[in-house]
Design goal:
Blueprint lengths: L16 H18 L14 H12 L2 E3 L12 H8 L6 E5 L8 H11 L3 E6 L4 E7 L5 H11 L6 H14 L1 H18 L9 H35 L16 H24 L13 H17 L2 E3 L9 H16 L6 E5 L12 H12 L3 E6 L6 E6 L1 E3 L10 H4 L3 H5 L5 H14 L2 E6 L32 H33 L9 H4 L6 H19 L7 H14 L10 H18 L19 E6 L7 E6 L1 H5 L4 H4 L2 E2 L4 E2 L13 H11 L4
Parallel strand pairs: 1-2, 2-3, 5-6, 6-7
Antiparallel strand pairs: 3-4, 7-8, 9-10, 11-12, 13-14
Helix pairs in contact: 2-4, 3-6, 5-6, 5-7, 8-9, 8-16, 10-12, 11-15, 18-20, 19-20, 19-23
């Protein structure tokens, strides 16, 4: 923290004999050059004229905001800075300048010496508070600068940075030191704080993501929920539902589309509140007066003197060089085919009204000044020189239009010089201009193209350049398509995963045997466990095939109802006796056959587990008895009647023939009679 007042430096404002002599000398030199050159603007004699100019501005108002950064910090924000400055509790002088033009602490010291007033001096560039020094007052300037630079992200903006700076100043020395220490410890280790604003590419990503969500999530719901629900209900080993499906309950078919539509609407309504950013920068919108302030200043200066040096920047031309260049300009203007030359030594910044485009700047100054001639734009900060011609008859192939890069952009020697050797290079440029031949064809620099021919400069749109596109714009529309494709891809992945899971479950819970395999793979003396597992599998397959019953005919529906009547006799399939389990298997298979279009009405009378019968025959069912019975037989039993006794179905636990059971006695007579017997057994009409 600096609280000592610097010694006052001798400058233009010095009084006494030295000042009088200096003024007399200046008056003599002005009179001398006035006979050879047009009237010129006053030029300070000391190297620190930038500080003198800024001190004079602060003498009028304690807050000075440059007019060279209207895109980032318009001059019209001066009252906002002034309001914050009053909160510090000490006299506060604020300079808002381009970062490249300010020498930091050294500039503040020189400005303080020029102004001669104690107080808190603050320097702010286009992004944040950069330096602050207290002269003759007590204020934790260094700690406040540290907090403002560490705690806020780079894109917070100079106004918010100054606000945080003022907050720390008002907290006093101890709290300010603690805040600065905490800020250094946190962000030295964790890096910079997160940005406060997003850019155009971030908004494109948000639009794309919103589009994907609006179509992808609802479509995924429509595809996946019914599929997963059906898979879960029909998965191998799933518990068998013993309740008859209610075919009239169709509300769930309408509920899912309604839920998907509501989800899409909710996403569309919520997204603008989640992605609520509207601008990519903290900079306020500039007004027309902000965008034209510097152009008016430069045009006014050039109307008085053909050479205009930006007073906010370090001076690149001393008095001697100025006099030489003015003389060269006057000589060219009076030469045959010559004309006015206007030199503007003004920084070209991305944040200025022209967006660092010298073409636009020169065109705008020419338009405001209203005079044809040669316009030279020299940047005192980076040393670049650009030339433009309006309404003069000059050979476009002459030396003036073929300048070496050492003149236009400088070389290693000029890069190392503080003034970029602009004086020497501008003199070389004037020599090339003098050597350029005059022609009958007017040479005019192409007019920059504005977005609208009726628009005034600036030619880009600094008012809306930081505005983000609407959320439902641009990449939002491709996002809708990609969302639908993503939903399809997700469905495919889920289906593949469930397919793999189904195969795994099938190894533990195999699917029912195919109809062609039943006669050869069905046992003649099954165990209760076999009947229970087979009944469970057949019930699951029947429920899956039957679905809601919309495609079932009367025959399939009757068999289905009878099967459920049997299955519902116990709390679950595990509690049913072997005869009932056998009847469940027979009727479940008959239901599936009817749903598949099989018009068979009889099952194999030798072993009903063999499936449908092909025909009826008198067969021997016992190897010790000669008695024959008329039974429907399947194709396998018909082809090998000698094995029928061994194939006869015998129920556990005592191995008696199945047809001796009261319920199964009707099985050889057909599925219809078996179903009727089931209704009688459960007392259902």
């Amino acid at each position: 923290m600096r609280t000592t007042k610097r010694a006052t430096r001798t400058g233009i404002g010095a009084t006494g004999t030295t000042g009088a002599r200096l003024l007399a000398t200046l008056a003599f030199l002005f009179t001398l050059f006035a006979t050879a050159t047009p009237p010129a603007q006053a030029s300070p004699s000391s190297p620190d004229t930038q500080a003198a100019y800024l001190a004079e501005q602060l003498r009028t108002e304690p807050v000075y905001v440059t007019d060279q950064l209207p895109r980032e910090i318009p001059k019209s924000t001066t009252p906002a800075f002034a309001t914050l400055a009053k909160r510090t509790g000490v006299p506060t002088y604020v300079l808002v300048l381009p970062g490249e033009a300010a020498a930091g602490e050294a500039l503040l010291g020189t400005v303080h010496d020029r102004l001669g007033e104690d107080g808190l001096y603050v320097l702010i560039d286009d992004s944040s508070v950069t330096d602050a020094t207290a002269y003759g007052v007590t204020a934790p300037a260094d700690d406040a600068v540290t907090v403002a630079q560490y705690e806020l992200p780079f894109d917070a903006g100079p106004l918010r940075s100054f606000e945080r700076f003022v907050d720390v100043i008002t907290e006093g020395g101890e709290k300010a030191a603690a805040c600065a220490k905490a800020a250094r410890e946190k962000y030295d280790a964790d890096g910079e704080p997160a940005d406060m604003y997003i850019g155009p590419s971030d908004r494109d990503n948000q639009s794309f993501l919103t589009g994907m969500a609006i179509t992808g999530i609802p479509l995924a719901m429509l595809l996946l929920i019914p599929y997963v629900r059906r898979w879960w209900r029909r998965r191998p080993g799933a518990p068998v539902s013993l309740n008859k499906p209610r075919t009239h309950r169709r509300w769930h078919r309408r509920l899912l589309p309604a839920a998907a539509l509501a989800t899409a609407a909710a996403l569309a309504a919520t997204a603008p509140h989640v992605f609520d950013q509207t601008t990519s920068s903290a900079s306020p919108r500039p007004r027309a007066i902000d965008l034209n302030a510097r152009l008016d200043r430069v045009a006014e200066g050039l109307s008085l003197d053909p050479i205009y040096q930006d007073p906010e920047s370090p001076r690149a031309l001393d008095k001697t060089r100025l006099a030489q260049l003015r003389s060269r300009i006057a000589r060219f203007e009076s030469s045959t085919g010559g004309g006015p030359v206007f030199m503007a030594l003004v920084p070209q910044l991305y944040e200025d009204e022209s967006g660092s485009d010298e073409d636009y700047f020169a065109y705008a100054v020419h338009d405001k000044l209203g005079k044809d001639g040669v316009y030279i734009v020299a940047d005192p900060l980076d040393g670049y020189i650009h030339t433009f011609t309006y309404g003069l008859d000059l050979d476009s192939y002459g030396p003036f239009y073929d300048l070496p890069e050492s003149v236009t952009y400088g070389d290693e020697k000029s890069d190392q010089a503080d003034d970029h050797l602009l004086g020497e290079r501008l003199t070389t440029l004037m020599t090339a201009l003098d050597k350029t031949e005059r022609t009958d064809t007017t040479a005019t620099t192409d007019t920059p193209t504005a977005p609208d021919p009726d628009d005034a400069y600036p030619f880009t749109d600094p008012i809306t350049e930081d505005d983000l596109n609407p959320l439902f714009y641009g990449d939002f529309w491709p996002g809708l398509i990609i969302g639908a494709l993503a939903a399809g891809a997700l469905f495919a992945l889920v289906a593949a995963a469930l397919g793999i899971a189904r195969k795994s479950l099938l190894r533990r819970n195999p699917e029912p045997l195919q109809a062609s395999d039943l006669p050869t793979k069905s046992p003649a003396m099954p165990t209760t466990t076999y009947l229970r597992d087979t009944a469970r599998a057949e019930l699951q397959s029947m429920a899956r095939d039957f679905g809601t019953g919309e495609k079932a005919d009367t025959r399939a529906r009757n068999r289905y109802d009878a099967t459920l009547l049997l299955a519902q006799q116990g709390e679950n399939v595990d509690g049913l006796p072997p005869s009932t389990l056998t009847a469940v298997i027979i009727l479940a298979r008959a239901t599936r056959a009817a749903l598949a279009g099989d018009d068979s009405t009889l099952c194999c009378g030798v072993n009903p587990l063999h499936g449908s019968a092909k025909t009826s025959r008198h067969v021997r069912t016992s190897s010790v008895e000669s008695r024959r019975r008329m039974l429907p037989v399947c194709e396998v039993c018909l082809d090998d009647p000698h094995k029928i006794p061994a194939r006869l179905l015998k129920l556990p636990p005592n191995g008696r023939p199945y047809y001796e059971d009261e319920l199964l006695s009707e099985a050889p007579k057909g599925f219809t009679k078996l179903a009727r017997k089931v209704r009688e057994a459960v007392h259902v009409p």
